[in-house]
User: Which sequence fits this backbone?
């Protein structure tokens, strides 16, 4: 099965509210994700918690990436090449669960997000395609 | 001869592992998730597989961004549960089956699947949560495990069709192993979920149930044709994990008999799906 790579990648931009972790994002976010990965080690978590700015300055990340992490602005992190499984190391260090952290990206309050999930989650209706409005 | 006797599909949500580790399984939120595995635990206690080929994905635990293997097979003797940032799960070490794993790795490469071979790694919730769901909380895992890690994080992941073909090749490899072994193949991850961006929280019950129907049917052509963009649009950005179920399904051959099915919305951010299938020759 032969797939046109340009068409394949272009379609990802047609999904509302979603950043597909493409090679382009993986390249842009390489050091942000590797920084996040470093928080898997307890001694690094201690140093990060003691002085976030000093710790993040050790990494060759852009200032915008550093600020997005320091602000815990996860949508901005995704825009700058972050991947959610790596960013999870940051919010886990903060003591947040996936449910709590993921909710922050939706523009909903934590209570509203939790209530939506308990009620069965977000419907795919209307958020499948920007172009086709379905 | 070694033989594949069954296939299991299950979600591998980390919060499910935490619920077991923290003894919350009887709470009203969790009870319906676990109730769907009661039958499976009784079944597997009778089946006693010698080896489970466990298809899963690593979530930035053993693999960071340095190396991204599309298909990697664990050929080591044992694997420790990974520290995913809050300490390793309190579960036993996972014992590998290096003889069968190396046999499969060699066979797959000769069969033109260019596998990455892993001798040492820790295994994260993607692998240990399915084991806890199926085996409960024993002192020692009753089966040996061959981890088969698939990249479903960095795009492009392998196509569903490629996963299916890999499953078929695994079946050929297992059948040519001389020792008499009862082998199961498990496909894990899914079902619909999205953990990122403003669309986070997406759940698609209708699509998930159609997928469960197709998994339980003979043939499987429709499953193989599902594109990445369809998984992304219909099942959320993390629903793509379901391509890993197709490795299991491909390994069972064309005809299957569904033995058990469970679907529950939801655990944490994720729709929980579970199937037990038997190959029909």
Assistant:
């Amino acid at each position: 099965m032969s797939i046109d790579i340009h068409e394949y990648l272009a379609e990802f931009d047609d999904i509302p509210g979603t950043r597909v972790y493409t090679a382009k994002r993986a390249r842009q976010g390489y050091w942000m994700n590797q920084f996040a990965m470093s928080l898997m080690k307890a001694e690094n978590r201690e140093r990060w918690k003691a002085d976030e700015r000093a710790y993040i300055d050790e990494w060759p990340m852009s200032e915008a990436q550093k600020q997005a992490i320091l602000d815990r602005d996860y949508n901005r992190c995704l825009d700058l090449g972050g991947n959610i499984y790596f960013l999870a190391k940051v919010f886990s260090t903060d003591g947040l669960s996936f449910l709590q952290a993921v909710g922050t990206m939706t523009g909903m309050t934590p209570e509203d997000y939790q209530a939506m999930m308990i009620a069965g989650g977000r419907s795919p209706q209307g958020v499948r395609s920007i172009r086709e409005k379905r | 001869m070694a033989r594949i006797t069954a296939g299991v599909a299950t979600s591998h949500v980390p919060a499910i592992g935490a619920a077991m580790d923290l003894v919350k399984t009887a709470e009203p939120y969790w009870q319906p998730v676990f109730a769907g595995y009661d039958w499976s635990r009784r079944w597997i206690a009778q089946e006693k597989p010698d080896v489970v080929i466990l298809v899963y994905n690593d979530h930035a635990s053993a693999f960071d961004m340095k190396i991204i293997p599309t298909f990697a097979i664990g050929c080591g003797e044992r694997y420790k549960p990974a520290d995913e940032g809050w300490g390793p799960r309190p579960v036993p070490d996972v014992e590998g089956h290096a003889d069968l794993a190396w046999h499969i790795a060699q066979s797959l490469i000769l069969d033109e699947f260019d596998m990455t071979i892993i001798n040492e790694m820790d295994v994260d919730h993607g692998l240990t949560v399915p084991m806890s769901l199926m085996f409960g909380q024993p002192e020692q895992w009753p089966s040996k495990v061959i981890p088969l890690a698939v990249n479903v994080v960095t795009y492009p992941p392998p196509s569903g069709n490629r996963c299916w073909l890999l499953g078929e090749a695994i079946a050929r490899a297992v059948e040519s192993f001389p020792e008499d072994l009862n082998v199961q193949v498990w496909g894990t991850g899914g079902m619909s979920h999205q953990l990122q961006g403003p669309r986070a929280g997406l759940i698609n019950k209708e699509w998930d149930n159609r997928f469960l129907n197709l998994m339980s049917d003979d043939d499987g052509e429709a499953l193989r044709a599902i594109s990445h963009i369809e998984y992304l649009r219909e099942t959320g950005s993390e629903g793509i994990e379901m391509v890993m179920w197709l490795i299991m399904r491909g390994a069972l051959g064309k005809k299957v008999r569904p033995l058990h099915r469970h679907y529950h919305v939801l655990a944490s951010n994720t729709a929980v799906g579970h199937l037990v299938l038997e190959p029909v020759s």
Summary: Residues 20-96 of chain A form a domain with the Protocatechuate 4,5-dioxygenase; Chain A fold (CATH 1.10.700.10). The CA atoms of residues 99 and 114 of chain A lie 7 Å apart. Chain A has a mean pLDDT of 96.
